[in-house]
Automatic annotation (TrEMBL), chain B:
One biological process term in Gene Ontology: negative regulation of meiotic nuclear division
Organism taxonomic ancestry: Eukaryota, Metazoa, Chordata, Craniata, Vertebrata
Organism: Callithrix jacchus (White-tufted-ear marmoset)
Entry similarity comment: Belongs to the LIF/OSM family.
Broad class of the protein's primary localization: secreted
InterPro entries assigned to the protein according to its UniProt record, in alphabetical order: 4_helix_cytokine-like_core, Leukemia_IF, Leukemia_IF/oncostatin, Leukemia_IF/oncostatin_CS
Gene: LIF
Key words, A-Z: Cytokine, Disulfide bond, Glycoprotein, Growth factor, Secreted, Signal
GO annotation, cellular component aspect: cytosol; extracellular space
Protein name: Leukemia inhibitory factor
Keyword field contains Signal: yes
Amino acid sequence: MALFEVFQTTFFLTLLSLRTYQSEVLAERVPLTPVSLKVSTNSARQSLHLQWTVQNLPYHQELKMVFQIQISRIETSNVIWVGNYSTTVKWNQVLHWSWESELPLECATHFVRIKSVVDDARFPEPNFWSNWSSWEEVSGKETSTERLKKPCKVTTPLSVQDSLGQDILFVFPKDKLVEEGANVTICYISRNIQNNVSCYWEGKQIYGEQLDPHVSVFHLSSVPFIRKTGADMYCEVSQGNVSTSIKGIVLFVSKVLEEPKDFSCETRDFKTLHCTWDPGVDTALGWSKQPSQSYTLFESFSGEKKLCTHQNWCNWQITQDSQETYNFTLIAENYLRKRSVNILFNLTHQVYPMNPFSVNFENVNATNAIMTWKVYSVKNNFTYLCQIEVYCEGKMKQQYNVSIKMNGEYFLSDLEPFTEYMARVRCAGASHFWKWSQWSGQNFTTLEAAPSEAPDVWRNVNSEPGSHIVTLFWKPLSKLHANGKILFYNVVVENLDKPSKSELHSVPAPAKSTKLTLDRHSYEIWVTANNSVGASPASIIVISADPENQEVEEERIADTEGRFSLSWKPQPGDVVGYVVDWCDHPQYTLCDLQWKNVGPNATSTVISTDAFRPGVRYNFRIYGLSTKRIACLLEKKTGYSQELAPSDNPHMLVDKLTSHSFTLSWKYYSTESQPGFIQGYHVYLKSKARQCHPRFERAVLTDGSECCKYKIDNPEEKALIVDNLKPKSVYEIFVTPFTSAGEGPNATFTKVTTPDEHSSMLIYILLPMSFCVLLIMIGCYLKSQWIKETCYPDIPDPYKSSILSLIKFKEKPHLTIMNVSDCIPDAIEVVSKPEGTKIQFRKSLTETELTKPNYLYLLPTEKNHSGPVPFICFENLTYNQATSDSGSCGHVPVPMKPPPSQLGLMISPENVKKALGKNYMNSLGEISAGGTNLNYVSQLASPMSGDKDSLPTNPVEPSNCSEYKRQMAVPLCLASPPLTENSSLSSITLLNPGEHYR
Amino acid sequence: MKVLAAGVVPLLLVLHWRHGAGSPLPITPVNATCAIRHPCHNNLMNQIRSQLAQLNGSANALFILYYTAQGEPFPNNLDKLCGPNVTDFPPFHANGTEKARLVELYRIVVYLGTALGNITRDQKILNPSALSLHSKLNTTADILRGLLSNVLCRLCSKYHVAHVDVTYGPDTSGKDVFQKKKLGCQLLGKYKQIIGMLAQAF
């Protein structure tokens, strides 16, 4: 009750007090007017800063008031902004308020005034505004002189005078910093309104609006970021075409500050928090106008703040062990903007563990091992979740998760023997996953085990008389089945036909085959692969005593892009499987036998390896394996992985050449060793004839020339008769084989010329004739003596001469034929001549020889020969061809006068010449005068002394001068009698002209 | 005292390169003797010629490098923004005596040295990544410094000139960025022009 009374009393006292205050204020009715208004400017921010006080405010009282502010530009009547500012005013308080202008303050004069009103709930209506304060002027474009004259009411940090001096042009704002996308107003102030001012923004002219005669403004909306060193704008004053002044500004446009992204904090050791974020774009600008944005970390629970020195991370020291929850605010800030992001987290949820260490393997055997590792202890009872991965040959084989406190251990099983593994582990907080640690790993190798699978074995059997040469092949076991390093292969051979001791052949690795010589019995062969631990299961193969069936017909298979699809008829009876074998390199002696095992139910398979090459013929043999492991050849296939065109052309033979046909053959051309199945041959024939022969068709060669082509479809038909040819014509022919891939290479054509049609007939005639002539010649040679005697004896027998018939025919009774017995043998005496006369004689003789025949008189051997002296007159016809032709000599019986002196003739060249000439002339004269018909003169004997020095003084006169028409032969004994030394000289001299004759 | 007197000239030389030096300073006191710390080389004029030729050879490249680094509108408005119309640039008369020419050269080199120092300072702030420009500016300033030393040696040793009134390049420290860029460009344009003339005159 007492309490109630106390409360009531207090209430009434308070009410009384309030009423007293209200009555004081309102009773006075004094307006609360703003006074002492001062205006200052911030040129960089383009802001007006107002400060004032309120007059008549009661002492120690607070009052809510509203201030209305008016701002005019250029002149007071041009109000550009009106606004209210509400605040609680204390007694004697200086109030502050700012206003930012979009127009640089330097561009125009601004005016500010203010009034106020009480807006307090304690003082109900009616309230009224105070009077306006007087206008406060903020000058902009004042020149230096004007400003010096008039005291400045407003202080500006950078005066126009200081910065620009007496220039005639000003551009504002200077070095303004704005954010990308902002709207910017720029102005210029021209001292002289007559000037022509042009302005350019980044090199492009811009146009503004005139604020007053001296001021123009430009509104740049949404300015882009151009470069860190700012974007330039300049204006130039020109009078006529002459630029008188240039002024400009640099506008620094900043990129917009971005909010930090991916902000997070984590700890590895519960001592330090590492906070990271993506800062986004750097907003730094040149000229130190704006540095890179700063980052501050603030933790609200502890109230601590840290200025980060890096742009994308910061470390925070954990000082209180008891604090588990953190509330971080990351504040990004530059001159224009501030951004922040916040995260709240529990420390144990943000653990990024240190990497595990001491990773080891214990009790490693062929198939399992124990892996151990450790983690750093960061906090009591902190549980880690660890992940283990086991890799083999780069592939992950096993993955496990395990929870641990400090020491980790895990049993790795199902490992492969003799295999290198890599096991690694990483850990994360188990209670709340935040982030895995980095991996820590180690390699280990399991131990060897016996090979787990029998080697794949195949054989090749060559039967020889009385034995089989068996070559065993096996494939190396895969790493999976080898379980270690294969050291050797054991081959056990057991005779099935007669009991005997098995033979063991040990073949060291890495051999993949061995050769056995077996007799004609059946053998069972066991092959095992062995490593250091043991042997593999055996692979069994049986060699039959019977030779392999080679009578299987070979079948061609088509190529299908490097793969061979083989199919076969199923083997009658029980088979345990099929084997297809082939050689990867059939062209080599070591052909690299390959085989493929196929299941018993399969009747086809596809063989495909990288070893198959185009143009190589592969032969496949398909065996059926009986239950007794005996292989039986079922089928043979052959084919090409890809057929190619023939690599060479056949060597062509041309025979049976006639005038109308010939035969071409290329029988030695092998069709088996070609890079494709030979399907036939193309025979190309070129001839001058435009028309192709029957069976030939017209074709165009690669060089564009035309020819005739004949196609042979049978590859074994290796001959062609080319007929219907023209005799004595040239044909060019070329044979090339073709496969499905095309024909053989281009080669030169072989020319064949058909013979003349009649040449064979001529041969038939000429050969016998030649033979006959030959026979006659042989006969003549054998009977030459008889023929000579018969036809042309040395001394013709006038009685046998045919002249007789002529004589008889002409019936000249006064001409008689002289008997040989009547003749006295002739003799020649050669007279020696002096040397000095030789040349002269030769000369005279030469002079005469062209016109006169030379005569050699054979002198008679008998000195006392009288009367008609027969002599022989030799006429040299070579020197008297014309005369000879006229027959003047040979056909005229010459009643020869004997030469005056033979000796004299020989001694003196003149004499000789004279004598010769005379003699000749005489002869000619006699011939011409004689006019007789006698044309044959026999020899005459002329009496001649045997002593050469005793020449006859009386020249002999031939009584009957006979003259041979063509008698050229002079008996050796007569023409060249044995001479003395002197006489031989004369003889040579005399006969010298005769050299011309030969 | 001798040591002090000998150290005056180098000390004042160092003062010449003070960045932003805006008002003329006397090189030596009026009553100071013309003394230099090191003896001058015999082939001073050859060295001066060689240095002028070296500067002339690199002046155009420096000019291009500068206006390219400023970005638009400088490269495309060279005549308007980079014209060599520097009003207070020391004069040079090529037909004067060697002594007069050397004195004028001295003034020009002092002027250019301070101007180049200001440009280098400004560009390091405005274009911190334009390293090749900075390097070229520094190299040019080094050669100018050597040239000034040689000219001084020559004046002192041959003509006993102990005092030369000099003016410095404009101080840009209080100017806005555009003005700095433009002034730098104009000065380098003027430098390119005058250095060619000087190389020919010597």
